[in-house]
Design goal:
Two copies of one chain form a homodimer.
Chain A: H1 5-12, E1 23-25, E2 32-35, E3 40-50, H2 61-79, E4 82-92, H3 97-113, E5 117-125, E6 129-139, E7 154-158, H4 163-171, H5 181-189, H6 195-200, E8 207-211, H7 215-226, E9 229-233, H8 241-244, H9 248-257, E10 263-268, H10 273-279, H11 282-285, E11 287-294, E12 298-303, E13 306-310
Parallel strand pairs in A: 4-5, 9-12
Antiparallel strand pairs in A: 1-2, 3-6, 4-6, 7-10, 7-11, 8-10, 9-11, 12-13
Chain lengths: 321, 321
Amino acid sequence: MALSEFDLIDRYFRSSGAARADVRLGVGDDAALLECPAGMTLVAAVDTLVDGVHFPHGCRPESVGHRALAVNLSDLAAMGARPAWALLALTLPSAEVPWLEGFSAAFSALALRHGVALVGGDTTQGPLAVSVTLLGWLPAGGALRRSGAAPGDALFVSGTPGDAAAGLALEQGRLAAEAAREFLRERFLFPEPRVALGERLRGYASACIDVSDGLLADALKLARASGCGVELEAARLPLSAPLRALGAARARDFALTGGDDYELCFTVPVERLAQLQAELPSELWGYTRIGTVCVETGAHVRDERGVKTVAAPGYDHFTAP
Amino acid sequence: MALSEFDLIDRYFRSSGAARADVRLGVGDDAALLECPAGMTLVAAVDTLVDGVHFPHGCRPESVGHRALAVNLSDLAAMGARPAWALLALTLPSAEVPWLEGFSAAFSALALRHGVALVGGDTTQGPLAVSVTLLGWLPAGGALRRSGAAPGDALFVSGTPGDAAAGLALEQGRLAAEAAREFLRERFLFPEPRVALGERLRGYASACIDVSDGLLADALKLARASGCGVELEAARLPLSAPLRALGAARARDFALTGGDDYELCFTVPVERLAQLQAELPSELWGYTRIGTVCVETGAHVRDERGVKTVAAPGYDHFTAP
């Protein structure tokens, strides 16, 4: 199957995602031309997924296409931004039609749901990797940063962390759990970035980060950027029923140190808590208080046996064994 | 050598390129925050370089760092845009200090020369590949597109095309030419994107494209986007002395079909030619008229033996043998 680079782009990527009136020139020239809203701050993030590193070799193309955009949507959600435009750098060993159809359909479907237009990209031959740059907007001064938390603030997480890591373990045969298999695998393969929640948290959250490397690791990054610590209560961790079915210790371990959740971890000053609950009821928006920001640096996990402190947990691409 | 992802970013990429007042938040959070100039159009491009595809395996890290940004600067130059901000997605087999030092120093030096700030990125483990997203600005309506050429317009190219392709052939041992070896190799390893020329061509050029896949291939893309053809006169091709030293036929072949030049190919309406020469003297700005836009589609090369027409020449990642 000889599909030229031009045909490939034309067939799968020329009109992907939402049609936006602010795109003056999209895919097909040397660069995209985009009209910016007045008085807003541009938000930009890039994330790469590498075959065999960020997804298992042979992973379904629909999941690769979905996740490549989802991880970037999650970055913008963590800033409280509204996504607008994506650029896609796709490196492929060869141009396989079924793979491209699955990848591009899932990418486009997620882009459409979030109002994102694919405006440019580059397709190259090489080992499978996908790098997406996502651009979006924020009212000036409205960003949720990692660095705004203060001791006393309440600590929250959205969704049910740990599901995706358990799903990956199932996918890779490191874990056996027939009953909950499909639910947990879907949570790894098709994460739902919390874009709407991130936008609505502007004005409430003092700090925010997306959970990609594991809840404990990312909460610690937020704490470090804010110059303080976080105390998590293990009993408050929102665990899904399928995760709990794996056993209490294992479920807690996945929730604290598993990665690929793409949930939001955020802090809210106590004086804002009542209004947060009134405006964004936690039971509707799916977030849970899991602890408190504290003075003592580090991430401190309190359970029935006491407090355990971790200083630098989580996955690191270049020092992981 | 265990260098964590955090240390790696902190040491090599936290303050890379120019310091710009419009960067509200750069490397280190979930996304960058950028202030946009009023009344301007945002320009965005992404390009990926893959080890063994876009540069020879074992290529000097200084060249990889330089070219990763240069190819994107060239895309923005082709639109007539002024570059501002870059995002870097770097995939590395391992974090080797000498490689990172060479790569980051060359990337930063080129960014600094063009006033570009590195504002975000992602470092991942995997087969060596570099994907850069470059953002810049244009006055609204000022873009140089591929599609504006009309029959009768003069056709130009900047610099001396073919040098880089000959340099790559030397680098790979496919060509022997001791005398000119260093000049031609440098032209492949460290191309100089024509950013200043691209900006100055606004108001003169009816269409513009950067020459990355070979002059003939890219001139043909411009012609197709404009719904016409191009006629090139082989005798007018600006060949460097080191390229000419390889022999007339070989030099012409490199100039017409070699890639990696990162020069600009552009068209100018004849009524603008006198003012172009007055404002941007060709001998100072380094561009040469090589032909004319014509009605008949295709790229037609005229030499002493007649006219040869090509319909779809050049390098294609997915159909090249």
